[in-house]
Amino acid sequence: MKKAVIFDLDGTLSDSIHSIKYCTDKALEPLGYGPFSVEQYYYFVGDGAANLIKRALTAGGDTELTHFKEAYDRYLEIFAENCMYQVKPYEGIIPLLNALKEKGIAIAVLSNKPHQETIRVIESLFGKNYFDVIMGQQENVPIKPSPQGVFLILEKLGLGAEDILYLGDTATDMKTGKGAGAFTVGALWGFRDKKELLENHADAVIEKPLQLLDYIA
């Protein structure tokens, strides 16, 4: 029996693509870039806010990233105010989380979203003190796919990698989980496809959140 599940946030727990699109488009508009499609944003996201802005600028034609600092600073300011724009949990997530809690299994979040916004999103969607550990992007902790965030969560929970499942929706998540030595599950309801998840060594892929329970025992 596994003792904990570590979840990615965007594209796994929360359907947040419209929030990311809204804030990035708004940040880049004064610079003459965008708007970009939802489909483009599925591939801009996943590796932190800085990489999100770099990818959007590059797609808009600023391949030298001349406007990166201005765009990035503006994005952080806009996102701090609008990180909950049209954000909602995916169907089946709340029943999954409740089932895990009923089994006494710890639940944690590891996101490349800025830490304060990660906390705000989680607490807005699920309430305070619902998750055992919440960790977003922080100074002095490398972002995913570094497994360092997983190790810090394991330390807080007093567990080893063999005790957990790691659930995410992108190649970055699969690399993070595998790098930590965890059993890694790909979420097919998120931002990327089955091919990407399997090519990055997902131990399993699931179409609906409650299917994760099949891998707990």
TrEMBL record:
Transmembrane segments: none annotated. GO terms for cellular component: cytosol. Pfam families: HAD_2. One of its GO terms (molecular function) is phosphoglycolate phosphatase activity. One of its GO terms (biological process) is DNA repair. InterPro entries: HAD-like_hydrolase_sf, HAD-like_sf, HAD-SF_hydro_IA, HAD_2, HAD_sf, PGP-like_dom2. Keywords: Hydrolase. PANTHER family: PHOSPHOGLYCOLATE PHOSPHATASE. NCBIfam families: HAD-SF-IA-v1 (TIGR01549). This is HAD family hydrolase.
